[in-house]
Amino acid sequence: MTKLFYTILNIVALSLVVYIGVDTFYRVVSSELKGVNTKEIVMEPLPNAEESKRSPLSSFQVITERNLFGSLDKESKDVNEEEIEALEPTSLKVALLGTVTGNEQNAFAVIEETDKRKQGLYKIGDSVQNATVKTILREKVVLRVGTKDEILTMEESAASRREKVRGPSKTAERGNTITVSRKDIQSSLKDINELMSQVRIRPHFKDGKSDGLSVSRIKGGSIFSKLGLRNGDIVQKINDEPINSPDEVLALYEKLKSGSRVSLEVTRKGEPKTMDYRFR
Q: Which residues sit opposite 148 in a β-bridge?
């Protein structure tokens, strides 16, 4: 009986040893296999990461183009719009082709040196001709020229393009002659105070001497807009007579009211321009 008991006990003990050995073997093998799979999983993304680093710049071309002439970035909130409007247009031979607004690191402007037919991408702090790019806004760039600021504006703003979409203006420009409705003239001259609120007129000085009147903040649809004037124009003569003070603008009002011949000589972006008016 005792012999049978020890035989059964030995069989059970042997079974336990075999079970523990097999279990240990599978655990070790399983662990090794898991280790191999883990390494493979970690290493597989490396080629993809390398490929992403090599993505061509052309991949971002669409984003750049969309930002260039219709930026979604927010302009700086510190910009004083009144001060910007009061700046004189730059006399440099440059043209603004597009802007990307944003913070100082992300804002860019495409500027062409018209005398050299050379275009470049400029950021705040860059130099163009003898000026430094100070601020980049939507369709405008403030340039620091010497000791003063000047404004560089795109030739045709988005607002101008929208006006064209709506339809032709009642004021038609034929060559250098602009036809203006007498009704529009008479209506606008009824209230001088209201008329003066539609534009800002300031004396313009060159080399310390009076050199005409600078016009800015022209309201769309105003008589000044219908006369073909643009922000930044410098009116220098009325009917060949030099004009040096805002009071002399009254002479223009009187001539407009009488319907007599009127001719303005202006400087627009550094270029002289003569505008003759006829009334109907």
A: 145
- Dihedral of CA atoms 228, 229, 235, 241 in degrees, nearest 10, equals 30
Q: Which residue has the tokens 């001497």?
A: 209
* Residue 140 neighbours by CB under 8 Å, 6+ apart: 84, 96, 99, 151, 152, 153, 154
Q: State the residue range of the domain holding 33.
A: 2-53
Tens digit of pLDDT per residue, the chain (280 long)?
A: 555 555 565 665 566 555 666 566 656 555 555 544 444 444 444 444 444 443 444 444 444 444 444 444 444 445 667 678 778 888 898 988 888 777 777 788 888 888 888 888 898 999 998 899 999 888 889 999 999 999 998 875 444 444 444 444 444 444 468 887 778 777 777 776 777 788 888 888 887 787 888 888 888 888 888 888 888 888 888 888 888 766 666 667 666 666 667 888 898 888 898 888 877 7
Does 129 lie in the same domain as 180? no
Query: Do 188 and 149 reside in the same domain of the chain?
Result: no
The phi and psi torsions of 58 (rounded to 5 degrees) equal: -65, -20
238, 179: one domain: yes
Residues 197, 176 share a domain: yes
Sign, CA dihedral 229-91-267-176, equals negative
* Tokens describing residue 259: 């319907």
Q: Cα angle vertex 232, ends 231, 236, to 5°?
A: 115
Q: Rounded to 5 degrees, what are φ and ψ at 232?
A: 100, -10
**Do residues 244 and 173 both lie within one domain?**
yes
For residues 180 and 269, state if they share a domain: yes
Asked whether residue 134 is assigned to any structural domain, the reply reads yes
Q: Are 207 and 250 part of one and the same domain?
A: yes
